[in-house]
Structures are given as structure tokens and as C-alpha cells.
Design a protein that fits this description.
By secondary structure, the chain is an all-alpha fold. It has helices at 23-43, 45-53, 66-76, 81-93, 101-106, 109-114, 119-133, 147-154, 162-172, 184-194, 202-208, 216-234.
């Protein structure tokens, strides 16, 4: 992805599917993605040219449970990739393959801190675990909820805001109508693609994305690609 922040290391590989998806699932998503991309291209000439210049739209099939993905997203916030990866490895090692809400709550805050987590992230991880256990965040059925309800549900967790919830929708649940207007990469990519002199504000971008419903994730993905194009040109 072209944005500086990220949910997890695997989310950098949005140009590829996760390893060995089932053939049926692969065909389903390829057909769905192709239809979405074709519709976005039909509606907008600029987006059509951006799509033509770049790799096909893909969202990898997630290989991490929802709780682990959200915990990872919290750990990676405001940290450089290498430092975050090292802390995440130590964090995961604490649970010996059983990273679950109950396991997190059973571990002392000091042990989490000893793995390299800041006190604020210890509090956030424990808050996530507690809210999953008490049902405030219904991860067991979250895939059946509407996008806006998922954002609302996740945003009550300490350390999880709208952006993290939107990235969860895109990369964990593979939802196709997410328009993360607060994401710097989407704002910058839109400005680059359309030759704007300044970045659109989130409010302006919200209105600009309406024409891409119900496939705004596709438009966002190609905005990220526009930023990638600029970086390649500068090398």
C-alpha cells in the first residue's frame, strides 16, 4: 500500500492473494473484483486510465483471525516497521500459539510491557480483549454486520479509531464499499490522479467518492497506486 501507516505486514502485499486460496473462493473473488473494477472504470475516465496503468485490483485472503489482526494493528501504530515487527514477534511468542482474548487477559500487564509494548498499548490490547469477551465487540459474528456498524463497534475500543476500523473492513473482511477519507494516501492519490493543486479535505473527498458506490474500496486502492506511481517516478 502507498500509505505510511499500516495495519500489519501482510497488508503490504495487496497485489496478491494469500497463499493457496481455494479454487472456488478464488473464482468468486476474481469475478467480483473484475466486475467492481470494470464498473469504476466505466464511470470515470481518470480512474479508467489509472486502472489500465496498474496491476489488477486484489485483496489478499486474510490468514489471521480477527482478534489477532486487530491486536497487530494496535501494535503497529506510530512505530517504524522493523521496530513494530520485533515487538509483535515478542508479543505473539508470549501466547505459544494461543493468542486469544482470554489469554491476553490472563497475562499480567507487566509481562506485556516486558515484550516491548508501551503502557498505552498494553491498555489498548487489554481493552480490546475485554470488550471481545464481554460481547461489546462481537468478533464471532462481525462479518455479518453492516460496514457502519462494524466501524461503530470497533471504535469503542481504546486505540482503535475509524481509520483502523476501515482498514479492517478492507483487508480483513474484504468489503468493497469502504472510502477511508481520512487516509493521507487516498487523499494524496486522488489529488495526483486528478491533477489537483491541493489535497481534498476529508469532507470534500467524501462527496467526490459518492460516484464510485458501491465499489469505493476499488477507487481507494487505485488512489494508493497513484502514490506508488509517483514514488517510482522519483527513483
Amino acid at each position: 500500500m502507498a500509505t505510511a501507516p499500516r495495519l500489519a505486514p501482510r497488508f503490504d502485499s495487496v497485489l496478491h492473494y494469500a497463499t493457496n486460496p481455494t479454487l472456488g473462493a478464488l473464482h468468486h473473488f476474481v469475478n467480483t473484483f473484475s466486475k467492481a473494477v470494470a464498473e469504476v472504470a466505466r464511470r470515470d475516465r481518470v480512474m479508467a486510465k489509472l486502472i489500465e496503468r496498474n496491476a489488477p485490483f486484489r485483496l489478499p485472503r486474510p490468514d489471521t483471525p480477527h482478534f489477532a489482526a486487530l491486536a497487530e494493528s494496535i501494535l503497529y501504530q506510530q512505530l517504524a516497521g522493523a521496530a513494530a515487527a520485533a515487538i509483535h514477534r515478542r508479543f505473539v511468542a508470549l501466547f505459544d500459539g494461543d493468542l486469544s482474548p482470554d489469554a491476553v487477559l490472563a497475562l499480567s500487564a507487566r509481562k506485556l510491557r516486558a515484550a516491548g509494548l508501551s503502557w498505552s498499548k498494553v491498555a489498548a490490547i487489554r481493552d480490546l480483549a475485554a470488550k471481545v469477551v464481554d460481547g461489546t465487540v462481537p468478533l464471532h459474528r462481525i462479518g455479518r454486520l453492516r460496514d457502519e456498524d462494524i466501524v461503530t463497534s470497533l471504535s469503542v475500543v481504546r486505540g482503535i479509531g475509524p481509520w483502523t476500523a476501515e482498514m479492517f473492513l478492507i483487508f480483513q473482511l474484504r468489503r468493497l464499499d469502504v472510502w477511508p477519507v481520512g487516509d493521507y494516501g487516498v487523499r494524496k492519490g486522488y489529488a495526483l490522479a486528478y491533477g489537483l493543486k491541493r489535497l481534498p479535505t476529508p469532507k470534500e473527498l467524501q462527496a467526490l467518492g459518492e460516484r464510485f458506490r458501491p465499489y469505493r474500496t476499488v477507487a481507494a486502492w487505485y488512489c494508493w497506486r497513484a502514490v506508488s506511481e509517483q514514488r517510482k517516478q522519483r527513483k
